Amino acid sequence: xxxxxxxxxxxxxxxxxxxxxxxxxxxxxxxxxxxxxxxxxxxxxxxxxxxxxxxxxxxxxxxxxxxxxxxxxxxxxxxxxxxxxxxxxxxxxxxxxxxxxxxxxxxxxxxxxxxxxxxxxxxxx
Length: 125
Hints:
Blueprint: H1 3-24, H2 31-45, H3 61-77, H4 80-93, H5 101-122
């Protein structure tokens, strides 16, 4: 994929994330979609990744797989008319989304639980 294609893909991902944020506030969106949207948007805005980017190869898998799959899944549940409205609004506003430190704290807690569980499992009793 050329660099311009990557940039276009990244812009679309950012626009769709903002459109999902807008959809999460719409009363016409089912609660199941809102739950998925909250997880996707929180993860996208989190300053901390579930899999840190410095880990070779798999460090970027969350950005390349988890977010697009979550966005795709949420879009499938959102009514088409609502999704189109949110996309148009996201395109017009093109606001930057703030970092979500609450999601970052949750990811830190997940890592601490994983590390703690591993230490308890590996520690000889």
